[in-house]
Amino acid sequence: MIIMAQKSLVLYFSLYGDTQTMAELLGRITHGTVVPLQVETPFPDDMNAVNDVAEAQRAKGTFPVLAGPLPPVQEYAIVLLGGPVWNGHVATPLRRLIQDTDFGDVPVAPFYTYATDPGDYAQEVNALLEPGSRASLGMSDETVKKTNQATAELQKWWDTVRPQ
């Protein structure tokens, strides 16, 4: 019998599918529970419009409301938290999740996807998750599409962040 506290929880937000692909690969590698984050009000289809919405949300500190219940993070040994880089920043749905969630003693290992330049994403997400943040992993959208390469990089990362 597998006890939930020994398992990983892969929580992610994906707008165009690359982070979803990465999360699903992580789910297979970790044998974890994979849960997509949904927002009550969908984002526009155009990335420039998404950036405008996200910039306004960051400026006001009002992040989108998440839809649906999430599993209790305290029942897991680790949370793998994924999202896309939006204009060099943490996607605002993840900002909402981090703001509203008490991770307690559960370590959180962030992963992220980016189209061109991740900017200071790793530093930003690690600062938001202090003190329970583990090493983050960023992967270009192009690498995510190369399943074998992506799987190898994710396995290597998982081997460094997994609970012992």
UniProtKB/TrEMBL annotation:
Q: Which GO terms describe its molecular function?
A: electron transfer activity; FMN binding; oxidoreductase activity, acting on NAD(P)H
Q: Which residues form a coiled coil?
A: none
Check the record and name the InterPro entries matching this protein. Flavodoxin/NO_synth (IPR008254), Flavodoxin_CS (IPR001226), Flavoprotein-like_sf (IPR029039)
Where on the tree of life does the source sit, at the highest rank? Bacteria
Query: Ranges for the Flavodoxin-like domain?
Result: 7-117
Family annotation (PANTHER family): EXPORTED PROTEIN-RELATED (PTHR39201), FLAVODOXIN-LIKE DOMAIN-CONTAINING PROTEIN (PTHR39201:SF1)
Name recorded for this polypeptide: Flavodoxin-like domain-containing protein
